[in-house]
Specification:
The structure is a single chain. The chain is mainly α. Helices cover 73% and strands 0% of the residues. It has four helices and no strands. It has one domain (3-80). The longest helix is centred in the last third of the chain and has 22 residues, at 47-68.
Length: 83
């Protein structure tokens, strides 16, 4: 695993392990509100703005998944054993 992936994994583990703290819960609530707002906006949008909203919705879904499910980036054996 590259250094960048190892650092990303460590950050994602930190986010997931602190998911019950007030700040993370406030961020989670904001993400859900933003997702709901995008879902109400996109039916009336066309073209480039629709593509932009779809990208934003995908990123929001990814962030919610990090908080609720945990990291999707998996460490290799070296990272898990601290080598």
């Amino acid at each position: 695993m590259s250094v960048v992936k190892a650092e990303e994994y460590a950050q994602l583990i930190t986010i997931f392990s602190t998911r019950h703290e007030a700040g993370i819960q406030a961020l989670r609530a904001w993400l859900y509100n933003r997702r709901d707002r995008i879902n109400s906006e996109w039916p009336g949008v066309e073209g480039e703005q629709l593509v932009r909203l779809q990208g934003a919705a995908q990123e929001i879904a990814r962030l919610i998944k990090i908080i609720d499910v945990g990291p999707v980036v998996k460490p290799n054996e070296e990272t898990r054993h601290g080598n």
